[in-house]
Protein: GGDEF domain-containing protein
Organism: Acidovorax carolinensis
Amino acid sequence: AKDSGRGNRQFYQPGMNVRATDVLHQERLLREAIANNAFVLHYQPQISLADGSLQGFEALVRWRHPERGLVGPDEFITFSESRGLITPIGRWVMHEACRQLKAWQDEGLAMVPVAVNLSALEFRQRDVAGEIAAVLHATGLAPRFLEIELTESVLMHHTGQVLETLNAIKTLGVGVTIDDFGTGYSSLAYLKRYPIDKLKIDRSFVMDTPQSADDVAIVTAIIQMGHSLQLKTVAEGVETANQKDLLHRLGCDLVQGFLVSAPMDAQAAHRWLSP
Ligand code: C2E
Ligand code: CA
Ligand code: CA
Ligand code: CA
């Protein structure tokens, strides 16, 4: 896959010669972080290409690491999965995103949905639909203000159970986005089998546009297919005005990326929401 920035920066990978004491040390720090809620969510805006308006935020988790400062998810999500520690982190993320959005709503701010990432392992291991229902109930956030981002790998396995869970999420009124679209070993059949609302075009297809004719063709095809299936399309990792202009011309609905804004803390995100 072209997206080499993703998933290759974990602390420890098979075959890497790391000392077991380091693993145990990091695991202990992670357990402490979970006990102390030493995580923070950053929010990255998604804007409409039609009128530039804010249409949503993606919530991205960071770890306030005692020795290394703010650590990004690529460096601890896979590690926490391997140590059996992803569930409490994922639960915290879901709850915190919903709590924050409801707090903004209670302040009288203009509301947009927040998107929360769930890894394939989390989706398999947890009663995601039941948990979402409980978090929405506990925080009081309306379901239309929550979206779930899933990668294609979720959809490949355990078809019956995945369909049941997605239908339950849909019934709640929560949106479902396929993240990193086009990078998985996907069968397009799942796009009609599952209740999906949005396709998020992976950054690896966006980053070499408009120069790469191949990538322009791929992005064009994804947007057209998405629209024929009544799905919204979002492009991630948009860094240049040329990329944005191309996406606009191609009819893409939303963009997200450094051109608009890097992920930011809650205080900065607050400023994007006018009363
Ligand atoms: P993702 O879902 O594909 O999220 C987009 C990543 O791209 C984020 O990295 C974001 O900061 C980065 N990004 C945004 N705009 C640009 C851009 O214009 N250019 C470039 N080069 N990068 C951009 P981040 O925050 O480090 O997150 C990495 C991954 O970690 C996410 O990829 C997501 O798969 C995962 N992740 C983040 N938060 C969570 C979470 O709460 N739970 C789970 N399970 N996974 C999470
Ligand atoms: Ca995502
Ligand atoms: Ca993504
Ligand atoms: Ca991506």
About this structure: Residues 44, 60-61, 72-74, 77, 90, 93, 117-119, 122, 179-180, 203, 236-239, 257-258, 263 surround C2E (ligand 1) (CB under 6 Å).
